[in-house]
Amino acid sequence: MAVSGFAMGIIDTIANIQLVSIYQRDSAVFLQALHFFIGFGALVSPLIADPFLSETGCGNHTENGTEIMHHFRNMLRNSPIAEHNITQSNLPYHEGEIEESNVHYAFWIMALINLPVPIAVLFLMYREQLIPCCPSGTPRLLDKDELAMENQQGAEGSDVEQKEHEAGGHGNIFSCCQNDNLRGLPVSFFMIHILGGMVLFMTDGIVGAYAGFVYTYGVSPPISLPNKTAGYLASIFWAAITAGRLLSIPLSYRFQPVRLLMFNLAGAIVTVLMLLIFYTSSTFLFAGTFFCGLFLSSIFPCMLAYTEDILDYQGCATSVLVTSAGMGEMVMQVLVGSIIQAQGSYSFLLCGMIIACLGFILFIGLLLFHRMHRNYLTGTTKKSAMVEEPATEQNGSAKTEQKEETESS
Q: Which stretches of sequence are listed as region Disordered (predicted)?
């Protein structure tokens, strides 16, 4: 699982950086589409695994949530090698009722579904001559483009192609983080990275914690939903995230990312507040879960597009934001889970409310530093323009004097 998560983290980071580098000001739409498919995969994969899960156990029995959690803890304490040491007293059902799950079939199915992707990537690498052991006789795709540009535009076309070549991901995407480029940058440049990462740390932390513990909250008092009914809460949450990202694709054409961010953050706070007020209503728990997923869905891609727009699409901000979001999902689940175990299930919504408010406050700080950074860039542009004007006037007067001398002679 660690190796799988490490690989997926690299894929996630590179995919976001490449979309931002290639499409730049239009990247918001493509980022929404990318994260729609992420949510769609998170929604579909449990449905694929569901037929292979064991029907025996907590789903068909009447034990309360505490006994079920004790059973899960006992199972986690013992490694697969030592499973035979689990005695009958540790299990909430008889030994003869144990039914083996065939969940490994679900992993094989997901692997086969994903198999065309690495095959397509390897084929593209082969065409681009990026595989050392398999040189291709056909010219690289980028070489064909360069040849066409040279025929059309000559030397000028080579410069344009070089820029496109770097935008396609073959250049140094971390050139903005080198020491020479960091000198002389304002504080606002670094604070935009930090605050943008902290906002995603909070919001993606809510996504991870809500998806992980909404079932625990549903089966606990005062709501005490049946196990099977509470199991639908996580599916509804991911379905809402998928629907929200699909809805955000056309919205990104019409509205700026900062407006969508403001609306979604405010909507998430209001939804969690309503869940706190109507904490005994199981009906509102389902409705609130849907709206919470809907508002949280497009915060991540909108924040990437907004931050990179501020920083002129250099790519470093994307890597910082993706890493911060992953850290938020990891840390917040551990933190919220510990608080729920110590203080009770009601603290689940209270933690969500506090985290959402902190995220909104950090976003307000990001807006302030964006304004400072914009003023800094405006002042720098004016200074450079003032320096260029005297040089232009000097060159113009020199040319005039030379012309007069030529005419007189």
A: 385-409
CA distance 263 to 360: 11
Residue that has been written with the tokens 């110590």 in this structure = 342
Kindly tell me the number of DSSP H helices and DSSP E strands found in the chain.
15, 0
Please, what are the domains in the chain?
187-374 (1.20.1250.20)
Residue range 200-215, pLDDT digits in tens: 999 999 999 999 999 9
Output the pTM of the full model.
Answer: 0.70
Contact 261, 207 (CB under 8 A): no
Tokens of 13: 């980071």
**E-strand stretches of 188-286:** none
Asked whether 128 and 140 are in contact (CB, 8 A), the reply is: yes
Cβ pair 350, 276 in contact under 8 A: yes
- Look up tokens 């909070």; give the residue: 202
Q: What residues contact residue 335 under an 8 Å CB cut-off, 6+ apart?
A: 209, 351
Q: How far, in Å, CA of 114 to CA of 100, rounded?
A: 26
Q: What is the pLDDT of residues 211-270, one digit of tens each?
A: 999 999 999 988 889 988 888 898 899 999 999 999 998 998 889 999 999 999 999 999
d(CA 316, CA 231): 39
Distance CA 289, CA 345 (A): 16
Distances 110 to 41, 47, 107, 241 between C-alpha atoms, Å: 10, 11, 5, 21
Q: Provide the percentage of residues in the chain whose pLDDT is more than 70.
A: 69
Counting Cα atoms < 13 Å in the Cβ hemisphere of 39 gives: 32
